[in-house]
Amino acid sequence: MFDLNPAAAQMQRLVSGVREEQLDRPTPCSDWTVGDLLAHINQFATVFAQNARKEQVRPPESLPDDWRQAIPARLGDLSRAWSQETAWQGRVAAGGIEMDAEDNAVVAIEELTVHGWDLARATGQDLRVDDTRLDLVDRFFELFGEEPFGPAAQAPDGTPRLERTVARTGRDPRWSPRAAQEIRIRPETPADVEAIRDLTTAAFDPVPYSDGSEPQIIDRLRADGDLAISLVAEDPSGRMIGHIAFSPVTAGNAARGWYGLGPVAVDPGRQGEGVGRALIEAGLAALKKFGASGCALVGDPGFYTRFGFSGGALSYQDMEPSLVQHLVLDDLAPDDADAPPAGELRFPKAFDVAAEGGS
To answer: 14: domain CATH number?
Structure first.
C-alpha cells in the first residue's frame, strides 16, 4: 500500500488555481485545452474511486458547470476510497485491461502526476513532486512498457527528474503556453510541397499502423485535383510544424458536400502542443466557410469527439465502426440533417496508394 492523498491533494490545489479565462488555452496533453484536461481529471478521479470500491458507475463525459467544486470533491473521494484496506485487494478492470488493485493504484499515481504537470504548465502554477512518488511512476513504466503512449520525447542533459518522467510519455519537457499559442495557420503554396512531404514522413515514421504512404497520398490528391483544403502550421520563425489535408468523400447516403479529414501531421518535436488541434479547428472552419455539408474521417474517437465527431453510422473497409467518425457542418440544412449519414465511407482514389504498397 501507499498513500494517494498527497498527489490527490496537490491536484485539488491545481484545479482550484485554474481561472475561467484559461479554459480554452492549450496544454501539453494530446491537443487538449485546459477545459478538456479538467474534464479528463474529473473522469479519472471518478473511475479510480469506483475501482477502489469495486463498483460500476458510469463516469462523467464532460466538464460540469460546477467543476471548481466538483473536481476537488471527486479527488477527495478518490483519496478516501484508497485509504481503505479493501481497495488494495483483488483485481479491477481499467481501460479494458484487468490488473491487480495495487497496479491500478500505480496507474492512478501516474495520471495524477503527469496530468498535474500538464495542468501546472498550462496555467502557470508551481508543481513539485518528490522522488518517492516519481519512483511509483517508474513502476507504471515497468508494468506497461517504456513507451505506452508512443515514442518518448527528448529530454536535454540536466533536465529535472519530473520533466524527464513526463518526457517518457511523449510530452515535450520544455513545453510552454506561449510556444503553443505562437502558431500561424495558412494555406499551402507551391513552395511548401517538399516541406509537407518531409514533415508528413517524419510524423508518420514512428506510427505503428502507418505503411509510409501518407506523403504519396497527399501528392496524388494534389495531382488529381482532390486536395480541397491544405493548411500548414508555422512557428514564429516560419518553420513548418504541421499540415492537414481535406478531400471530397462519399459519406454513405449523404448528399454531396462531404469532405474527408486527413492525413494530418505534426512535427514530432512539437506534438502535444496544440498544433494538431489548431489545424483541425482551422480546417473545419474553412469547410464551413464554403458551405460543406459535413466531414468524415477514420481515427481515434477519444480524440475527435472533442471536435463534435461521432461514430457508428458509417463503415470503412473492415474498420471498427466507432473509428469511422462524422460531423454535420451545414447549419442551414433541413431539420433532419442532423441524422447521421448511413452506409460506406469512400475516399478519393489517392488513398488507394496505401493498398498498392505506397507506389
So the answer is: 1.20.120.450
Q: Among 68, 119, 90, 87, which Cα is nearest to 4's?
A: 87
Last residue of a domain, one of 177, 199, 217: 177
Q: How many CA atoms are closer than 13 Å to the CA of 160, on its beta-carbon side?
A: 11
Residue that the C-alpha cell 471536435 belongs to: 307
Alpha helices in the chain (DSSP H): 5-16, 34-53, 67-81, 101-123, 131-144, 161-167, 177-181, 193-204, 214-224, 275-289, 301-304, 352-355
User: Which grid cell sits at 187?
Assistant: 494555406
Distances (CA, A) of 68 to 2, 11, 345: 27, 12, 41
Same domain, 200 and 96: no
113 and 32 in one domain? yes
Specify whether the CB–CB gap between 231 and 244 falls below 8 A. Answer: yes
pLDDT tens per residue across span 210-230: 899 999 999 999 999 999 999
Q: What is the SS3 assignment for 347?
A: coil
Number of H helices, E strands in the chain: 12, 12
Q: What is the pLDDT of residues 248-269, one digit of tens each?
A: 999 999 878 999 999 999 999 8
Q: pTM for this one?
A: 0.59
The boundaries of the domain holding residue 270 are 182-355
Question: Are 272 and 151 in contact, with CB atoms under 8 Å apart?
Answer: no
Q: Between 214-224 and 193-204, two packed helices, what is the crossing angle to 10 degrees?
A: 150
Q: What are the start-end ranges of the E strands in 188-269?
A: 229-234, 240-248, 250-251, 258-266
Residues 318, 271, single domain; the answer is yes
